[in-house]
Amino acid sequence: MLRSLTDFIAEIAGGTREAAFAENDYRLAAAALLVHVVTIDGVIGTEELAKLRGILGAHFKLDAAEAERLLEAAIARDAEAVDLYAFTSVLNRAMDDEGRKRVVAMMFEVAYADGGLTEFEDNLVWRAAELLNVASRDRVQIRKQVRASFDAES
Hints:
Elements lengths: L1 H11 L13 H15 L5 H14 L4 H17 L4 H10 L2 H16 L6 H13 L4 H18 L1
């Protein structure tokens, strides 16, 4: 409500307000899942954050400032969420099968950014993939592809 009011005032004053990410924005939902992957093992590495920023910018075609705003909104959204369903339900409504598989791949990419996949990260991606209706076979294949790409870069 406050955001609507400030948008209205900015519009009347002739100014423009920077684009915000609404709670039902699929980009925010995906980013929040990625933040959850980064934080699940209790160690937030610079490699993971750098990878996360890069993924957000590249996948959603955002400049550095927009990607940073999305990341900040995702951190706040993840902190207030009680489960993964809040994010996966938005993604299920907004994305097709390929889009949801890409979110799973992004989750694995962020998880591998610090050198390996922990059991917590793997379990989180498994639960999210189930909620995103990504088949186990597809999830395993995506994990293998991301791992192979990670090994090739290392």
